[in-house]
Amino acid sequence: MNEIVIQVPIGQDQMNTYPEAGEIPIPIKNLSQIPTASCKTIRLANAMDYVPLSQRDDVLKLALEKLRYGGKIIISGIDIYGISQALVSGYINNQSINSSIYGGKLSSSSMHEVISLIQKYSNLEVNNAKLENQNTCYSVVARRKPLEQ
């Protein structure tokens, strides 16, 4: 398996993200069926926001197991601290924050939490971490070290 995007349902027949060129969409409920160390790229596009907080660590550990040596994982989502700061600063209003946080989402994280979880459960190197959209959204890219020859 080359590149996958993990999707979570937001409606009966809808998914929350659309695959980019070359990506295979996999529903999050089928993540355990993917062979260990078989994926070159895994993209969790807002998927962690839809996982209950009590299951977040287990889902991330499972996704990390699917990454092959030299592969990368891309995790993006709403940054809870950034969106709170944007509300207080007047960059967004209550309606925007309600749809961002409560639009079917079950948990919210910060970019720093995601980086800490990646480091806690794997030996991946974080290559890129950034806040976007007035610091309300994060994107973290980490790579699994290639197997030493």
Give me a quick take on this structure:
This protein is α/β, with parallel strands linked by helices. Helix content is about 30%, strand content about 30%. Mean pLDDT is about 80; it is low at about 10-15.
Keywords, please?
29% helix; 149 residues; 4 helices; Rossmann fold; 6-stranded mixed β-sheet
Account of the protein in words:
The structure is a single chain. The chain has 149 residues and is an alpha/beta fold. The chain has one domain (3-143): Rossmann fold (3-Layer(aba) Sandwich), CATH 3.40.50. It is built from four helices and six strands; from the N terminus they run E-E-E-H-E-H-H-H-E-E. Helix 2 (80-89) packs antiparallel against helix 3. It is globular, with a radius of gyration of 15 Å. The relative contact order is 0.17.
